[in-house]
Specification:
Layout (H helix, E strand, L loop, with lengths): L1 E2 L10 E2 L1 E11 L5 H12 L9 H26 L1 E2 L4 E2 H17 L6 E10 L3 H10 L2 E8 L6 H16 L6 E4 L7 H16 L7 E7 L3 H5 L4 H16 L6 E6 L12 H11 L3 E5 L8 H17 L4 E5 L6 H14 L5
Parallel strand pairs: 3-6, 3-7, 7-8, 9-10, 9-11, 11-12
Antiparallel strand pairs: 1-2, 4-5
Length: 343
Amino acid sequence: MREMRLPPGHVPVKSGKVGILLMNLGTPDGTDYWSMRRYLKEFLSDRRVIETPRAIWWPLLNLIILQRRPQKKGRDYATIWNREKDESFLKTITRNQAEKLAEAMKAVSRDIVVDWAMRYGNPAIKPAVQRLLDQGCDRILAFSLYPQYAAATVATANDHLFRALMEMRWQPTIRIAPPYQDEPAYIDALATQIREHLASLDYEPEVILASFHGVPEKYVQAGDPYYCHCHKTWRLLREKLGMSEEKLVMTFQSRFGPDEWIKPYTDKTVEALAKKGVKSMAIIAPGFSADCLETLEELDGENRHIFEGNGGEKFTYIPCLNDSDLGMGVIRAVAERELKGWV
């Protein structure tokens, strides 16, 4: 890092370092009503997430949804809460990812600084950018931890980053890491994760679901490339594993509201497979870089109950890549590629 030559009386300015800002979706600060309400209000007020006209959505959100949903989601979060650290596992894992990436980047350059933030909740994006600036980062790689692009994930994280930059007199140079739905290191890591998990079982699942987070159908029709990105990940993963479309099935989870979402739905598929006589299955969530409510509670909880309640017998959830060696290999591969020319 270098100190700039400045005229007398000028405030000290640090520069010469490169920052990496890992960004994930977000998490409530607690499972109580008010923590959940704050988080849900920020999340569901985002126009990237809910595109319904404000005149319709505002009364629905404030007079109905935020009166009822915080209690239910708080109970759901409580079932998968990291009680040792009193935080969600998404926060724990994302912190670990940042710390491990920082350690790995020392082999690339001592001038790389890594920080992390959440689009919703804490730690917030703006303070993270300021921390990087304070340490002399005049260039920052913004790395959203979503393998597939969607306006409701990658775009809104970038929007929030840009809002923070709008308030800064001296903006750092910004690079936006692209989605990595077809990154070879990512596909290889997913395939290895599946193989290793299946090898640990005493049975061979008849069907494996690759469950991605859903989005409303109208978002895709409006031009969002999310479905195509998910489909490409699924196709490449099938090819890597040598599995048919019937063996490794693509589905979409986490519907919300009355609109049609992209299909097939995960929960309906799980139910139909069990009723058809499938006795064993596995689920993996390739679109999540870290385990969270949607994987631990929804997939490994709700969908396990659906399967077993409709005649299924053996169910296994394959964890996300998280901060494992496989997962960190993916994050490092993308980061090193996108830092070329800077370090």
